[in-house]
Write a structure and sequence with these properties.
three-stranded antiparallel beta sheet; alpha+beta; single chain; 13 helices
């Protein structure tokens, strides 16, 4: 065996190759100080959860970048709502079901502040700030006057104590406020009766926590590790950098403000001599002189004036801010321009590439968290409650099939995307239903509206034509049909061919 054969063999799978693959496990000089503890994520959350949560909430309130990132995260995750489209075959029953759901969404909030889709946005914000949100399903009485006697109550992460880890009286284990049975299923949540940070809620002395069955609680969070039982704030990886950057910006701004307050300094050989201009003494007895516009001052013998020249932030300030905020954006998993609002260095291609990757991540959260943990569970309980209350005459199991339509994505150049969708439909690559649902609407609802619009236009004697030369989207122009008694012998207008599909659409 030659030298090169031995070298290839050693490089392919020998001890040297194995050591290279396990370099991160070495304990030599470079990595001797890197000794992280081997802790489970639940232990980390239990010990640092309350402090992490408090710092996260303060950052989103006081830091502009964190607040903007939170709103961008929620707006892209749920937008104006992730909406259901029933898949049952009976058209009349499906239409009744959709209308009943739409009417109930206005009554869904137990606090009466928003609708079901507004609650989705609140859940998305809580996921960004706290990493989790609890939704309690609250059955209502018939005399409450609701279309479907069911409402949703949102509970913040602080309502479930991290420190409540013990054994319950029935033998179940309670971990971070969640009660598990012998085989690891969630059976109850032990919520606080009052928010620990709300000083305005002062009432009678009551037990600190209340046990709520797990069937009435939805725990919305993104599990990062297997076996994770509580959520981590989405902002957690960027918290330290945002906090330090905020302190640096404040110090820089304060330094510039302090330096700008001093226009100049007067030095003189004899302190007892009078100063130029009008003088006054500050609290420490130091003399302060003021100047007015157009002043021409003759200095006294021995006096000298040195004007202030504050140090600039330096040419590297912009580059430092850009790289720091870029790292913050990467930690948050958000595009740089959504965090900062800065699009100076962006173009169509860079924005598109950035948004495609970001929307793939958002799609994971939409279907794997919001739809699976919130929307499907609410839909199932809502159907059961509607049938029991007599608002819906159907078997809940037969009307349960549904698909959830996320909000549409608005691209940088929508014309190119629409043209691509039309070509895909013509080639049979996708269906018209999928294209319509990608815009955030139900295809059957769109078809009903189109049919109603066409019938109304026909009844009013209107036509809608588009100019064949327009490329930036069709602008419809109504034209009145000629009356039978005006001598018109055909159905054309100004010589236009009524049968030309490129110039007219009924």
């Amino acid at each position: 065996m030659g030298f090169f054969d031995r070298f290839r063999r050693r490089s392919a799978g020998g001890p040297a190759a194995m050591r290279a693959r396990l370099e991160g496990a070495m304990a030599k000089r470079r990595l001797r100080g890197w000794n992280p503890p081997l802790e489970n994520i639940n232990a980390l959350v239990a010990s640092g959860g309350p402090r992490l949560l408090a710092r996260s909430r303060e950052l989103v309130v006081t830091n502009g970048y964190a607040a903007n990132a939170c709103e961008a995260f929620a707006a892209n995750l749920v937008g104006d709502g992730i909406k259901p489209s029933s898949l049952i075959g009976d058209a009349n029953l499906r239409d009744h079901l959709q209308r009943l759901w739409l009417a109930w969404t206005d009554e869904a909030d137990a606090d009466g502040l928003t609708d079901f889709y507004g609650l989705q946005a609140m859940v998305a914000r809580e996921m960004f700030v706290a990493g989790e949100c609890f939704v309690r399903l609250r059955p209502r009485r018939a005399e409450d006057g609701l279309l479907v006697p069911l409402q949703l109550q949102l509970l913040q992460s602080e309502m479930l104590p991290f420190e409540k880890t013990e054994t319950a009286a029935n033998g179940n284990r309670i971990r971070c406020g969640i009660e598990f049975d012998g085989i690891g299923r969630r059976v109850a949540y032990h919520f606080r009766r009052r928010h620990p940070g709300d000083s305005t809620d002062q009432g009678a002395v009551i037990p600190e926590t209340v046990r709520v069955p797990a069937v009435d609680v939805l725990h919305i969070y993104r599990p990062i590790d297997a076996g994770q039982i509580r959520g981590l704030p989405h902002i957690a990886p960027a918290m330290v950098r945002l906090f330090l950057l905020d302190q640096y910006d404040d110090a820089e701004l304060d330094r510039k403000k302090t330096a700008a307050m001093f226009a100049g300094f007067i030095t003189k050989t004899a302190p007892e001599e009078p100063m130029i201009g009008e003088t006054q003494a500050d609290l420490d007895g130091a003399a302060i002189a003021s100047l007015e516009p157009g002043t021409m001052q003759v200095l006294l013998p021995g006096e000298d004036v040195k004007f202030s020249s504050p140090a600039d932030v330096g040419g590297g300030y912009e580059a430092f801010q850009y790289r720091t905020l870029l790292a913050v954006s990467a930690s948050l998993g958000l595009p740089y321009h959504l965090v900062t609002g800065d699009v100076r260095q962006a173009n169509y291609s860079s924005l598109r590439a950035e948004l495609v990757e970001f929307r793939r991540r958002i799609g994971q959260l939409q279907h794997g968290v919001i739809v699976h943990q919130l929307c499907r569970a609410v839909w199932q309980r809502w159907l059961e409650t509607a049938v029991l209350a007599g608002a819906l005459d159907a078997d809940p199991a037969t009307v349960r099939p549904v698909q959830w339509i996320p909000p549409r994505w608005d691209w940088v150049d929508p014309l190119k995307d629409i043209q691509a969708q039309v070509l895909a439909m013509e080639a049979g690559i996708t269906s018209r239903r999928k294209v319509v649902e990608a815009t955030g609407y139900d295809v059957e609802e769109v078809d009903r509206e189109n049919a109603a619009d066409a019938a109304r236009a026909t009844g009013l004697g209107l036509r809608y034509r588009t100019s064949p030369g327009e490329t930036q989207g069709a602008r419809a122009t109504p034209a009145t049909r000629p009356e039978p008694d005006d001598g018109a012998g055909d159905d054309t207008d100004n010589g236009a061919d009524a049968t030309d599909p490129d110039t007219e659409q009924e």
